[in-house]
């Protein structure tokens, strides 16, 4: 513009004015928690919804988010993607959804960027996705400080396709899964993985690439972080199953909005019922453990029962040795009373 006007001095507005216009337009596009964009042909390309209830839930439960774009493709050939969190009852909650035209970096970057704006530019601390390079690039661009984790289930599902031609594939698969799931420390995983590679003489580029990225999907490398019970995108898939009651691949766009509202209302009713049960029910103590007594008073029903199960398991072990490692850390050696 400045070149066309023969210099900035001939411009009738400043850079700040232009930035204000851009910011105002961007805010208008995301007002009410919605955003959309059109393609070069003027046709609708991508749509994002984030309703007020989702924004309120994100304020309380937005630390950990799962994102998935593998749900149904509607008659407009636009995959349905959604953001999912976990509430205080352990229920999956919807934190936004989108209809996307292409599953590439540009589209994901647009989705993540606009979703963040809807959420007040507050990025989650942790996010769980499948192993999609385009998605990863978009996350690095829009949520650089967010810890990214891959869904372990999606990785293991590819074993048969990537390694199925190995002569000892059934045994190889079992030993790989043992190394992944049964290792208790990172060092133990490294040893177990190397043992499997040597035993079966595995030379596979895909598996080597997976191993190189072990810090974002192997349990021993991510278990020290809080994931709200998310290990796979199963949470997201449970939301997808929930949506099956309201939408299908032939749903029109105008019908989708109404179905979305119905689904959100149904999910809100489930949370309200859980709140009521927690307020009314008297949770029974089973073990008389101090931990159980404490969480009986402050946890919801669902979360308390998780603690109670762990306390109950302690009844079946006995302490053999107790060591004081320092002023604040104690080490116990326990023995299972059963078997």
Give a structural overview.
- This protein has 14 helices and nine strands.
- By secondary structure, it is of the alpha+beta class.
- The chain folds into three domains: 187 residues, Ribonuclease H-like superfamily/Ribonuclease H (Nucleotidyltransferase, domain 5), CATH 3.30.420.10; 62 residues; 55 residues, no CATH class.
- The strands form two sheets. The protein has a seven-stranded mixed sheet with strand order 1-2-5-4-3-6-7. It has a two-stranded antiparallel sheet with strand order 8-9.
- A hairpin with a 5-residue loop joins strand 1 and strand 2.
- Helix 7 runs antiparallel to helix 8.
- The protein starts with 14 loop residues before the first helix and ends with a strand.
- The N terminus is likely disordered.
């Amino acid at each position: 513009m400045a070149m066309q006007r023969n210099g900035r001095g001939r411009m009738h507005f400043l850079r700040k004015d232009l930035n204000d216009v851009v910011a105002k337009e961007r805010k208008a596009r995301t007002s009410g928690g919605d955003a959309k964009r059109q393609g070069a042909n003027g046709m609708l390309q991508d749509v994002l919804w984030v309703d007020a209830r989702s924004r309120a839930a994100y304020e309380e439960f937005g630390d950990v988010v799962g994102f998935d774009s593998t749900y149904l493709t509607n008659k407009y050939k636009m995959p349905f993607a959604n953001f999912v969190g976990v509430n205080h009852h352990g229920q999956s909650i919807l934190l936004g959804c989108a209809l996307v035209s292409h599953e590439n970096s540009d589209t994901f970057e647009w989705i993540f960027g606009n979703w963040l704006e809807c959420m007040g530019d507050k990025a989650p601390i942790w996010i769980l996705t499948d192993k999609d390079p385009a998605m990863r690039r978009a996350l690095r661009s829009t949520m650089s400080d967010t810890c990214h984790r891959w869904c372990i289930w999606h990785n293991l599902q590819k074993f048969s396709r990537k390694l199925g031609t190995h002569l000892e594939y059934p045994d190889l698969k079992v030993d790989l899964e043992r190394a992944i799931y049964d290792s208790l420390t990172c060092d133990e995983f490294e040893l177990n993985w190397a043992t499997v590679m040597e035993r079966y003489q595995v030379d596979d580029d895909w598996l080597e690439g997976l191993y190189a990225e072990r810090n974002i999907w192997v349990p021993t490398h991510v278990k020290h972080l809080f994931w709200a019970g998310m290990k796979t995108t199963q949470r997201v898939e449970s939301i997808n199953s929930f949506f099956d009651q309201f939408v299908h691949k032939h749903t029109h766009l105008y019908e989708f909005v109404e179905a979305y509202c119905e689904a959100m209302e149904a999910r809100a009713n489930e949370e309200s019922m859980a709140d009521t049960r927690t307020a009314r029910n008297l949770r029974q103590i089973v073990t008389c453990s101090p931990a159980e007594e404490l969480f009986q008073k402050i946890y919801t029903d669902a979360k308390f029962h998780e603690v109670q199960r762990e306390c109950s398991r302690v009844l079946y072990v006995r302490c053999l040795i107790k060591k004081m490692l320092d002023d604040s850390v104690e080490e116990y050696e326990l023995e299972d009373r059963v078997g």
